[in-house]
Amino acid sequence: MTRYLATRFAGMVVVMLLVATIVFFITRLAPGDPAAVMLGDQATAADIAKLRASYGLDQPLPVQFAYWLGELAQGNLGQSIFLQRPVSQALLERAEPTFFLTLFSIIIATLIGVPCGIIAAVWRGKTIDQIFSGFAMLGASVPSFWFGLILMQIFAVSLGWFPVAGYGDPGVALTERLHHLVLPSIVLGVVNSALILRFTRASMLDVLSDDYIRTARAKGLSEARVVLRHALGNALIPVITVLGLTFALLIGGAIVTETVFGLPGIGNLVVSAVLRRDYPVIQGALLVIAGLYVLINLLIDLLYLVVDPRVKY
Amino acid sequence: MIAAPPAPASRSPSALLLRKLFRRKLVLAGAVILVVVALLAVFAPLITPYDPMALRILDRMQSPRATHWFGTDELGRDVFSRVVYGARYSLLIGAVVVLISVTGGVLLGLVAGFFRRLDGPIMRVVDAMMSFPDILLAIALVAVLGASITNVILALAIVYTPRVARVVRASTLVVRELLFIEAARAIGISTWRILFIHILQNIASPILVQATFIFAYAILAEAGLSFLGVGVPPQLPTWGTMIASGQQFAHQALWIVIFPGIAIILAALSLQMVGDGFRDLLDPKLRKSM
């Protein structure tokens, strides 16, 4: 077990180092001088030289990389050019809406995906299965920004049930801010429930064909008891994996959804940084989000140990 | 006397597979939608009643009617003509992304799956690349490379290559251990020939399935990038740019965003229907449970 943990952790460190390397070199892909690109057309040669020096861009590439890694090891993600403050601070300030949006979306996605997946599997091949499977395929084909725009027109603009956009004025109560998150969370939750539905259905079908389920039925147990008590527990274990995968989808979806609903979250920060060519912010966001993804997937692997006694490392 | 059973018509395995595939209603429906969208894209100049770029300010924001089936946008441009022309860009971008990412992914996956020493390093890089959400990595790449069709294609191809590599590597690991590969080695066939002829032929089906899904993802991602303003230049009529430019007028003229959205859904859905059917057909476990 300790050995497994050590190997798994070492693997995570290697992947994170590679992630950092990729992030570093992505910003160096820019044709021409990154400092000139960041400052735009109006910049003077002196401004460009100053920025180059302050970001160490006048040093050889390996030196720049080593310096950058050293700073990262100390938790320093750099300084935002446009916002004039540390990237880590900018990310933290924007974390709240993204955190709640992701949390609510995954709850909604699970509440839709798991029961529908179970129903589809139990009534395999029936109309209800076809409807839910069709919904899952549709969910994976609907662009979240478009779905968001449509829901916004119906429920915010026409019916006035929810605020059209934004996250409320600074200082308003948390409940008011959460009210702003209802529509965006529904959009992301519904779109991402598709993957969870498909996974639950496949996993449930797998378990329902196991011998112990046949035994349970042979004992004369009711179908509801067989499904809910005997099959469900085992069927849900692989579904945990899909929650890790859904995290990446949700963060990707959050970037677009936050833009649609004008939520001041990390996604909005990234899009603004892209439009302003604020590379340190883009680098920092890429690194933090990829790091979270790697960490969450490690935690999910470890969670298997707790929820499935058959798994031994 | 018992008559001899009729000899089965000689059919190649791929023809039989296709027959089985299109016998599924869902796959057939997906293929029909896809063909219709592709035909619309190819024959766009013949089908569209208006120039998709022509501005008619006096006709702005007209609701759908006989003269403008999908209405007009905020600059009086015909939405139907723009949606049809949009198919050209979206399908073209999706197809080129598939071509590049499948080529790159096949090369990486075959090498990683066949040469044990290279497996670790290649797959760690693939793992690292897959730690980034697709759209975030694409946004970052386009931000750095600059917004243009070529760079959007390049960025999406970089994003999806690791996905293909992972599938190809997994299939290569299985096929590599089969007896016919050992036999090929024993009779002295070169490693490259084994890789690119013998193994590739046997893993073509999962690659094809993955390619259809990547086509769908690429269409969705391109629309997302264009919507965010970091994709294709806004003057080009792609489905994403149409929704982006129409969003601030959506409360007055919802049709400006409705129709390009439906077009994206139809294209992505049809590709997923075909890909899904194909995958189910190839997966014996799933086939049993269908």
- How far apart the termini of chain B lie comes to 41 Å
- What would you call the structural class of chain B? mainly alpha
Strand proportion of chain B: under 5%
CA gyration radius of chain B, whole angstroms: 23 Å
What is the largest interface, and how many residues per chain? Answer: A-B, 55 and 48 residues
Measured between the Cα atoms of the first and last residue of chain A, the distance is 5 Å
* Residue runs with pLDDT of under 50 for 5 or more positions of chain B: 286-290
Helix content of chain A: over 70%
Question: Overall 3D geometry of chain A?
Answer: globular
Q: For this entry, what is the oligomeric state of its chains?
A: heterodimer
H and E order of chain A: HHHHHHHHHHHHH
Give a quick account of the main beta sheet of chain A: strands, pairing sense, barrel closure.
Answer: none
Instruction: Give me the number of helical elements of chain A.
Output: 13
Question: From the alpha-carbon coordinates, what is the Rg of chain A to the nearest angstrom?
Answer: 24 Å
